[in-house]
Amino acid sequence: MGESCVPDAPQRVVTIVHHMLGHTLAVDVKPVGSNVRYLQQTEGDYLDTQTYMGDATEGIELTGVENQANIEKIVSLEPDLILALEDSENIYSQLSQIAPTVLFQLEDIVIDWKKGFALVAELFGKEDQAQQALDKYSQRIEDLKASLGDRYQNQTISVAGMAGPDMFAYTQNSFSGSILSDLGLDQPEAQKVDAPYGAIYNLSEESLEQTVDGDVLFFLAFAEDREATFRELQQRPLWNQLRSVQKGQAYLVDNYVWTGSNVLAANAVLDDLYKYLIDSPSPDI
């Protein structure tokens, strides 16, 4: 983390990376501002699309796009602490003049989400609350494993996505890959690798059978109309040759949830797994 004098019990926090928003909300720290991931998300109410966060985002102001923080907006919010990633070093001097600024490593926040959660919780003195949240997640993992039994033994669970024309597959070191690993569920061989940012990018349609296909496929569409994108894929001959598609086990899921990299999103992924793998609502804990 970046060197900074962190105030006791900060009240006006700004998160410059959207993944960190879930970490803070999970320990009852509500930022006054948060960045979005893509420019087009500034045109609507991006935070309302984070449905897995419930109404916790109400009142949080948008402070720009990742790597393009709106400095004037941040100044207007009068923060007493700013949380950012190490790739914000180019504006660190500006941010640190506004408020104490802590830089986190991308690997800790986006890839090793449990470590990132622990680091953020420690910053606010909320270690016990974070541990309780992780313990609840672990209990849900054990409950789901018991419900699954051996029904997916010797089967593979794939997670893939599409942004514009580019297709990609999420690997074992991704957020979703870590959850599948916690459950003891197997990914396709091509996804059992550690890849930069947890994904294999620029896949051709001809390679989908080797990189994306599994017995079950969870698909993320990064588009304004996700359902339309998914319907368009279903018209492609190569897509319909996938085993998961032929078995009727290719599912469109919320990309914000499945790339959330925080414990709130992790629990929402478990809800999806209950829905699609067991055809049952998730039990309350």
Q: Count of helical segments?
A: 13
What is the CATH homologous superfamily assignment of the largest domain?
Nitrogenase molybdenum iron protein domain
- CATH topology name of the largest domain, in short, is Rossmann fold
The level 1 CATH classification of the largest domain is: Alpha Beta
Instruction: Tell me the distance between the termini.
Output: 34 Å
Describe this protein with a few key phrases.
285 residues; six-stranded mixed sheet; five-stranded mixed sheet; alpha/beta; Rossmann fold; 13 helices; 2 domains
Q: How would you characterize this protein structure?
A:
- The protein is an alpha/beta fold and 285 residues long.
- It folds into 2 domains: 13-125, 3-Layer(aba) Sandwich (Rossmann fold); 148-278, Nitrogenase molybdenum iron protein domain (Rossmann fold, 3-Layer(aba) Sandwich), CATH 3.40.50.
- The protein is built from 13 helices and 11 strands.
- The strands form 2 sheets. A 6-stranded mixed sheet has the order 4-3-2-1-5-6. A 5-stranded mixed sheet has the order 9-8-7-10-11.
- The longest helix has 22 residues, at 127-148.
- It is globular and about 55 Å long.
- The relative contact order is 0.13.
Q: TL;DR of this structure?
A:
By secondary structure, the protein is α/β, with parallel strands linked by helices. Helix content is 39%, strand content 18%.
